[in-house]
Structure formats: structure tokens, C-alpha cells
Write a structure and sequence with these properties.
It is built from 54 helices and no strands. By secondary structure, it is an all-alpha fold. The protein has a domain of 138 residues. The protein starts with a helix and ends with a helix.
Length: 966
Amino acid sequence: MAAMSDVHELSSILSSLIESVDWAIEEKRLDFFRKFSTSIWEREGGWNDLDLINLQDFFQDVDIPGSECTIEYLLFEALNCEQEGENFIEFVASTGYKDAPQYDENEEINECRQTPLHAVASSGRKNVVDALFKIYDDYSVNYAEPMDGYSHLHVACAYNRLDIAEQILELRQDPDITDRLTGEAPLHLAVFEGHREMAELLLRYGADPNWPCIDESTPLHLICREQDVKWARMLFKICRERGTPVEINAQDCLKFTPLRVALNWEKRDLVELLLQQGADPNLRDEEKQTPLHYICRKRDLEWATWFINICFEKNRPVAIDARDKDGCTPLIVALRRHELELAEFLLGKEANPNLSDNEGASALHTVCRYHDDDEAVAAAKTLFETRARFNKPLPLIDAQDERGNTPLHLAAMRDRPRLVTYLASLVRDTSATLANSNGRTFLHLIGRSRGNVIAAWQISDDHWKRRALPPKVVDARDAAQDTPLHLAARNRSSDAIELLLIHGADPNAANARGLTPLHEILLERSWDQDPDDKSERLAEKFIEVVRKVRKTVQVNAQDENGDAPLHLALRRGKKKAAELLLSQGANPNLANAMGDTAMLLVCNPPTPNEDEALELAKTVFESSQECFKPLQLEAQNRNGWTALHYLLSHGQKRLVRLLLERGIDLNLTDECGNALHQAVFHDCDVDMVKMMFECYQATNRQLDINARNIGGWTPVLLAVHMNRDELFEFLLRSGADPNIANAEGETCVHLACELDHEPRLCSRARALFAICAKRKQPVRIDAEDNEGRTPLERAVASHSATMVDLILDQGPDLSSFLFPTESYLKASWLEVFLPQTRFIMASGTLAVLDRLTERGYELDRSDVLAIETFFSSWVFVHDSANFEGKLYEDKEFETQAKEMKIDGYTSLYDLIQKPVDSARLLYTPMQFYEFAHELDWLKLPRRLWNVCAWHLCERLPRKFFEQSSG
């Protein structure tokens, strides 16, 4: 009765709980599991006779969207609900609920179906496996996942449910059913999880021991990685009993065999068993590496010794010289790993040291690439001595890799002096002649290197000193036509240079660029700034050694740029080197391809320094041999420049004086003119020019002050044009002719009239007339340029009233004067953009008209009309009143304008405030013109410049126009 009471109570609680849930909502369903645990499962004392409960009756009216079987759907959801979900699953199993099979359209059981057992693996709820297998206990059907084929048998094997797996297998289910995603059969899972009895069961029921999973690993691969030798013995034993051969050399996706996997995991007993079962110790992996390659890469002498010996015992000889995909043998691999003991062991097993990798590098090449010299020597000795001990052919000392380098080449390139010394004791006479792909022999590399020259010396003494090196060896040419001596000189290797010269190297050999070894010593190198003048000392030693071997240095040899060693020394400012070369017969007058001689280079250094240049120049003068004197100081380069031109451009007075004292000709001209032209052009000060005159006069020579350049410009014309006022006046006082015209017909007066605009300056014109009057030098005031314009016409066209006054004071011929045309005036105004300039030009034009009329000049009626028309269109605008408010209301303008005085009394602000008509009567055009030049526009608001200019133009006097109209 008590049991029946439990069943009724449980039924009541469960029915009430089921009715209270809204099954269409996922959160409510999850809440069901929590309520179920607290109200039913966790009841104190539990429940009796749960098998009397028919769960299907309770859930038959429950409708969950998307589900065919409510209880199975809840089992799936329970797997995601932690402990409450597990409680529900255990409860369902306790009630004796069994899954009903599902049938397809042919009324056959649908084995391709997902059950909660499949979801156990992804959810991790292994505690409910047994409960679920009670629910899904029809083992005649091995349900498999539709997506990947993962079956109930996989689950049983993964969780080591031997009884269930055996029941499934007894019902003749396929033991090799495969998970299509991973390729794993149940046997793979059993091995991976370490379930040995399960693996044995599967094997006995026919599981394929060679079935590959997705990475092509067989169960034997997994055993070698995950398990021990007992597993392997079990596998071999059962398969032998079944008569099923095990593929002992099966390879996975990396081409690893079980033997290679066992080696990777350092399982000696497994390795030994596999070899005993016929494993091939020489099969290659994806990288074409054999097991021995792998052992050598691990730097393991003990393993290599054991492996080779055990293979020998099992009658499985190891391919000692097998090559991987890079062509490396195990010996080369060991040497690359710096494992000398392992290499010695392999050599003892008859490893061939002369086999090369894909780059042609042998074992000896590999050793010669070591960074440590002592280690490289030890490794090389290991190769030679071990082979000698076993009476085997020695490593080939002259073997060349794909770049043509022998081991001796590599040792020299890497500055390994002790290794070079050792190898040199073994080389044949032909070794020195072998060249690599760049054409470089061992001697080239000796010259190229700095650190191994001591070894090179030892080589010479110990090996080659007894025999003379033939010229084809000591002067061998590489691809750039460099000899070993070139490379030694380029790297400034003193000992190597001496060694090569003693052995007969040609000190004057030129390479493809025409450079001799002496050029190479003196060339500037970006990697070597030579702060301690090493190149100078080396040049001195080079010449000394050449003299000792009774040869001569061609100090005037020129390279492809025409540079001799002297050019290079002077360009770098090497005084001692220059002195040495000059004493050896260097020609200071020799020009390079640019036409630069020694003195041109001295006077045009890359970074001008007058003190250094002065010392270099004195060295050239004093050290040059008599046969080259006097020096060609006036030599011109391809740009037409002389040494003096460069000095003037750098402003180096002391050097100019030195050249003048040495007799340089200042009258020598080029396209730019003579020295005076250069002085003006390069902005030399007056003192420089005065010094030039003084030095010339001291030697009773005459300086051509009126020389003309290609454009017809004299120095004085150039001084006017370049605003060199002080120099202009000096040249005039020194006798320059102001009346000489350039190619455009312009004289000094023409240029002054065009360039001088300031009303209170016109300094050049004033100075010109004053100096010429003092010299009683007539000035051609009416000279015409190529366009027929006189200085007065230019002054008028420049709107310079002050200049017009100066010209008129000189008494020009007004009868031939023509006022500028309307088109000329318009063209000049079209180029005016700033409003203040408009005011200057407008006031200047009126002031010029005023000056001309005062001097009695009468304008032609047509000219007056043209000027009136122009001013009406461009100056006297009638709408400026529209802008008056802008000036009158602006406080910033008012403040600044009150500070600007037109005559010392009336301010700009007052002038603007005055009525236009009264303002026109207050001041003359000349006063307006002077005020226009004095007005500081920058103090006024920029936004009002244009308005202010128009107002000022409105207030200009119109007397000229009123008189003309009258």
C-alpha cells in the first residue's frame, strides 16, 4: 500500500508540474528541470516502485514545437542543464522508459538518427551514459549521427562500456563504422582513450587494425604516440591469431610511420618491437627525412648510437647517407647542429663527407660556415682525422658549392684565420686558382677580408713561400675585373696589400671602372669615414712596398671618370696624401672628365673650409714637381669655371690673394664674363674687389674693368642690375664706363631709371651722376635702348617722379621725348595686384606729369586724351562713396590712420574725412607720391586696403585734367 501511495503522490506532483509549464517557451522548459529536481528527485527517502510509472502517459498531451517525441526532446535539453538535467535523465531511466525505434518510408528501422547518446560527447555529461544506454537498449540497431556517422558503438568505446560494446558487436554490427568528420573508427577511440580491453574486444570482433582516420593515422600510429609496448604486442598477437597482417610501415599525412612516431616520443621498446616486426628504418617523411635525420636534428648521440645498433641487430640496415628534401645527409644535419661527437660517430659508420646538399655544400662547407673559429677548426679536424683513422677518402678540400665557393673561400669570407690556416695546410697547388661564380679566388677573399690577413700571411710562409705564384693567380680577375690587390686596397687591409705585392701583384692593374689599387685606397667609402687618416698612411705604405719590390706606381693613371689618385685625395681634403702623390710625380694640371684640375678641386671642395683649402692649395704649389710649373691656374672645367670663379662664389679672400700672388689672370673670360663679373654675381663684398685691384696693380697688370660677357654686360652694369650699390660706386670710381650698353642697348642710366622707384632714394642714379661729374666723365643721358627708349622715357614709365627730376637736371633733349602710350600704361597697370601699389603708381604718374609740365614740356593732345581715358577707367572711380562707411565706422582703422601723417600734421584719417574736392587742393601730386611710399599699409586692417586705396586715388589732384579740358 505504501508503494501505491508513492506512485499516486508522484503522479500527482508530476502531473501538476507538467501542467504548470508553458512548453512552447524554452526558458519555462529549463525551469521545469529545476522544479523537477527540488520537488521530485531530491525528495527525502526517494520513491518506491518508479517502474510502475508510465512516463508516456504523463507527456502524451505535451506539445513542444519542432519535436516528434517529447521525452526524447527533453532528454536532449537535459544534457544542457547541468545537475538538474542529469537528475531528470536518471529519473527517466529509473521508470523503465525505453526508446521506441523510428521507421522510414519502407517501414524499416531508421538507423541514421541522432539520439541523446550522440550528444553526450559534446556536452561532457559522461555520468548519464549508463542511464541513456538503459533507455536506448536495442543493441540490434547501432544508431549513427546523420551528419558524421558517429554511432552508439563509438560512445560505448569512448566511455569504456565493455558490456554494451560486446552486445552491439555480438549482434553483428560493423566494428569499423567510421566518424566521417574525423575518420575515426571505434578502435581509434579505444586506443586514444587508453581502453585496452575495449581495443582487444574490437580486434577480436574483426576491427581493422590498419584503418586510417582523417590524418591517415592507423591504430598503430596512435599506440606509438599514446600508449606503450604492451598495446603493440596485443595488437600484433591478435592480428596474428586472426591472420590479419598489420601494415607496419603505414604513413600518415606527414608521411610518418609508426616507427617514426615511436622515435618522436622516445619509446625505445616500441621502436625495437616495430623493427622486429619488419619496420623499415629508412622510410622518408614529408620533408624526405629518415628517422636518422630526425635523431640528428634532435642532437642525440645516444639515440643515434642505439638506433643504428638495434637496426643492425634486427637486420635492418640504416641508410647512413640518405638525403632529405634539401639534399642534406644525416652527417650534414649533425654538423649544422654543431654536434661534433654525433658527426664523428656517423663518420665511423662510413657516412660520406663529400656528399653535398641542394646548394652544393658538403660537410666541410657546412663546417666553414660556423661563427666560432675554434669550433670550425675542431669540426674540420674531426672530418679529416676520423676519415683518415678508418682509411676512408678524405673530404674534398677543393669541392665547390653552387656559387663556386670552396671551403677555403668560405673560411676566408667569414674571417676565420685559424680555420684558413688549417685548411691551407691541406690544399693543393690548384686551390689558389679556383674561382667562385663572381670570379673571385681565395686570394680575392683574403684581400676582401680584414680579420684573416694573419692567416693569409701564415699561408704564404708555410705553403706558398717556397714557390712563386704565377701572375694568373696573384692578378686573377673577378667579374668586375678586380684583382685581389683591388679588394685588399678597397678594404684598406694593409697586411693583405703587402702580402700580395710581395708575391708579385701588379700595383697598376685597372678594373672595369679604370680604378687602380691606389685609387681604391683613396676613394671615399660611405662605410668608412676615415677619421684617423688611415687611407693616407696606407697610400704611403703602398708606394713604399711597391718601391721595395722594384716596381713603380703610375700615379697619374685615370679611372673612367678621368680621376687620378691626386683628384681623389684633394676631393677628400687629404693633404698628406696629396703631398705624397705630388712628390711621386702626380700631375697637378691633369684634368678629369669634368675638366677639373687639382687647383679646381682645391677651390671647390664638397664642404667649403677656407683654412683647409688654403693649406691644400699651398701643398699643391709647393709640392708639385718643377716639370709641371707654372700651374695652369686659369684652366676651365666643362662648366667654364676657373679656380677663381669657385673662390669668389665661396668668398674665400685669402685663397684669392694666394692665386693672385701666383699670377692668375683676372681678365680671362667665359660666358659669364671675367673675374669682376663673377665677383658681382657671387655677391662678393667691396673689400674682395679692392684686393683684386690692389694685387693686380702691385704686379703692374691692368684689370679690364669694362669687359663684357656674352650678354654684353660689363661689371658695372651687372652691379646696377643686382642692386650692388657699394660695388657699383667703387667700379665707377675705379674707371668703369657708365655709357657702355649691353646687348639690349641698356646703359647704367637706363637700368637705374627702371629699378629706382623710391622718391627719396634713387641712390644709384645720384651716385652715378655725382661720380661721373667728379671724374668729368660725360653721361649719355639721351642714349636709346634697342626699343628706342631713353632713360627719361624709362623713368616716366616707372612712375618715378624723383628720377624724372634727376634726369631733367642733366639736360636731356625734350624735343625728342615721347610720353608712354595708353597701351603701355594699361599693360603696366594690369600687372598691379596690390591696392597700395595702385596708389603709388597713380600718384607717381601725376607727379611725373607735374614735373614735366613745370620744365616746359607740353603733351600732345592725343596723349592727354589717352591718359585721361586711362585714369577715368582705372583710377578715378565714382562709386567709392559706397564704401565710405567701412572706413569711417572701423575703430581699428581710425586708431592706426590717425598715427600716419602726410605732411607731419595731417593724418591719413583726417585726409579721408575731408571732402574730396577740398582734399585735392591741399597737396601736390609730389606730396601724395612721397606719402604713398611712406605709408605703412601693414599697420592698417588688411580687409580695408582696397577701400583705402580707392579713397586716396579719389583725392589725388586733378589740376592737370582740368587744365587740359579747359
